[in-house]
Amino acid sequence: MLWRRSSYRxxxxxxxxxxxxxxxxxxxEVDKMRMTSNAFSHEGAIxxxxxxxxxxxxxxxxxxxxxxxxxxxxxxVDDPDAPDPAAPKMTWVHWVLYNLPSTTESLPESxxxxxxGTKEGVNDWKRTGYGGPCPPIGRHxxxxxxxxxxxxxxxxxxxxxxxxxxxxxxxxxxxMHLMGTYQKGR
Length: 186
What we know:
Helix content is 9%, strand content 37%. By secondary structure, it is mostly beta strands. It has one domain (2-182): PEBP-like (Phosphatidylethanolamine-binding Protein). The strands form 3 sheets. It has a 5-stranded antiparallel sheet with strand order 8-6-5-9-10, with helices on one face. Strands 3-4-7 form a 3-stranded antiparallel sheet, with no helix packed on it. A hairpin with a 7-residue loop joins strand 5 (72-82) and strand 6. It is globular, with a radius of gyration of 16 Å.
């Protein structure tokens, strides 16, 4: 189990990655997992184009270092600071994708055609697709989380994040995340 610890404005977050491999080799392999965007850096500001104040398009995302045995990928984008980072009450879900093929290495900006076989879940606007940052108050954190699974999930129709996480239990080989921040300018 690998632990990553970071802090943001006094709030400590801990993200962990689990390797379902026996021995040290699995842990080293999972440690190689990386997620990036050429639009913003980890813990950096998300440009306005990817938010409700801009074009509200999905940012470009890329990843490397998937563990051996990865059969599919899950992408969840959420905001744990809703509605107010000073007094968060819920995690707002912005995007839910599952069954991305394990051969997928990236998603382009403003992705229109998802990789073949990819399925969508519903976000907290009760629709599929990407919904960009639109915080009502303060600077929020937006986690772009990619999970490597040891199977292709059955068709879950349009699951919520919670339903998808339930279906993923026991099948996560590794996890990586990219966190960006956003505060409205108007």
